[in-house]
């Protein structure tokens, strides 16, 4: 029976997605190329042996157009004979890339495959792929949802209202994310996963969005970020509690994992970090949009024949504090096992790279702590979610 195992995983530091961000001066193709080179160098495998490269990217336009993954592979000077493709499942794009890669291994289509992700939100801002005046929805979708869908910030507000999550709870969660990320960085827990990135201004080695001094009291001074009278009238239950401080920031970054068939890994002398145990994807209400992680978690556990108590570590993407808090309420998971190194609120959320970034952090944390099972889940625009269960290989 074939098994898919992760044998190496790396990521760049995560830069602030601003003109003066640490990685803003690096073209996304070059940033991903640097990451791919580092991955293969660490693994020590001949690049020509890679069967495919599957990358995630959300805004596939401008400097992220024309199959960014293939361009990055070529930019790295790697063999032209190796194919590559770029997929979009919104924020879960590179987690989906991992799923496709592992599924290809299990099906016998691949023996060695790279799954990766890239997003430079400094250089290709959100919604760059929807030009002014363009309608991405069409008439049939508008007819199905005549009141209209809403931006993610409004979905986060609706989740906060539906799960009775007040501002204080969201700010406390966000402060914990920064505290855990700062502690993990100080302890050197990211050292094995981060690939330093040289830029014209020097070498970037650390995640740029972590704020060690952040407290709930500091976060309480921020104004709500998504107030809009139109939505306030439509949804009177909204209390306007979602701020820039309890939401993920805008970021730049890349991550990559090498996935192998277990027998191939053994033949090449590659040490598996974890086995890709179970995959699940779900659709959910596109209005609330970000709640799919709840059924995705249940589906993955059911397929794996595991319970929540069997999972030692969780990575739940912190798009907004309200999303993770709602998941915690519904699942009853132990908060002490969730995002133990901090999450996207502190570390950052470079859209197409985030799924691979979370999994990179997760497999290294499993190896460091001896955790047997871990579960990662990502909420995604349009009412989608991925969930992945990993098992550490002794």
UniProtKB/TrEMBL annotation:
A GO molecular-function annotation: acetyl-CoA C-acyltransferase activity
Domain Thiolase N-terminal: 5-261
Pfam families per the UniProt record, alphabetical: Thiolase_C, Thiolase_N
Gene3D superfamilies: 3.40.47.10
The UniProt record lists the keyword rRNA-binding: no
Thiolase C-terminal domain sequence ranges: 271-392
EC number assigned by the record: 2.3.1.16
Record keywords, A-Z: Acyltransferase, Transferase
Alphabetized InterPro entries for the sequence: Thiolase, Thiolase-like, Thiolase_C, Thiolase_CS, Thiolase_N
Leading EC class: transferase
Alphabetical list of PANTHER family matching this protein: ACETYL-COA C-ACYLTRANSFERASE (PTHR43365:SF1), BLR7806 PROTEIN (PTHR43365)
Family membership: Belongs to the thiolase-like superfamily. Thiolase family.
Protein name: Acetyl-CoA C-acyltransferase
């Amino acid at each position: 029976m074939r098994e898919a195992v992760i044998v190496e995983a790396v990521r760049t530091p995560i830069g602030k997605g601003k003109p003066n961000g640490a990685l803003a001066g690096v073209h996304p193709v070059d940033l991903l190329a640097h990451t791919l080179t580092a991955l293969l160098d660490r693994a020590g495998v001949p690049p020509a042996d890679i069967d495919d490269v599957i990358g995630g990217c959300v805004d596939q336009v401008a400097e992220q157009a024309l199959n960014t993954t293939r361009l990055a592979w070529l930019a790295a000077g790697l063999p032209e004979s190796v194919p590559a493709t770029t997929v979009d499942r919104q924020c879960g794009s590179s987690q989906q890339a991992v799923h496709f890669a592992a599924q290809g291994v299990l099906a016998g289509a691949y023996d060695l495959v790279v799954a990766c992700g890239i997003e430079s939100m400094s250089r290709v801002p959100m919604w760059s792929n929807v030009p002014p005046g363009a309608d991405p929805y069409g008439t049939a979708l508008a007819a199905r949802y005549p009141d209209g869908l809403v931006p993610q910030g409004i979905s986060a507000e609706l989740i906060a209202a539906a799960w009775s999550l007040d501002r204080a709870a969201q700010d406390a969660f966000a402060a914990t994310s920064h505290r855990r990320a700062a502690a993990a960085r100080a302890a050197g827990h990211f050292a094995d996963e981060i690939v330093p990135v040289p830029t014209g201004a020097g070498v970037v080695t650390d995640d740029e969005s972590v704020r060690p001094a952040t407290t709930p009291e500091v976060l309480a001074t921020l104004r709500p970020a998504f107030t809009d009278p139109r939505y306030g009238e439509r949804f009177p239950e909204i209390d306007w509690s979602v701020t820039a401080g309890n939401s993920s920031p805008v970021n730049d970054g890349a991550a990559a994992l090498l996935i192998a068939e277990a027998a191939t890994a053994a033949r090449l002398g590659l040490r598996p970090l974890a086995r890709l145990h179970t995959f699940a994807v779900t659709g959910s209400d596109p209005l609330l949009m970000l709640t799919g992680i709840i059924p995705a978690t249940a589906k993955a556990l059911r397929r794996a024949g595991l319970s929540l108590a069997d999972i030692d570590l969780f990575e739940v993407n912190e798009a907004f504090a309200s999303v993770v808090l709602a998941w915690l309420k519904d699942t009853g998971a132990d908060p002490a096992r969730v995002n133990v190194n901090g999450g996207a609120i502190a570390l950052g959320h470079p859209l197409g790279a985030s799924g691979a970034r979370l999994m990179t952090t997760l497999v290294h944390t499993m190896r460091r702590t001896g955790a047997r099972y871990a579960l990662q889940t990502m909420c995604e625009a349009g009412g989608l979610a991925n969930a992945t269960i990993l098992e550490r290989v002794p």
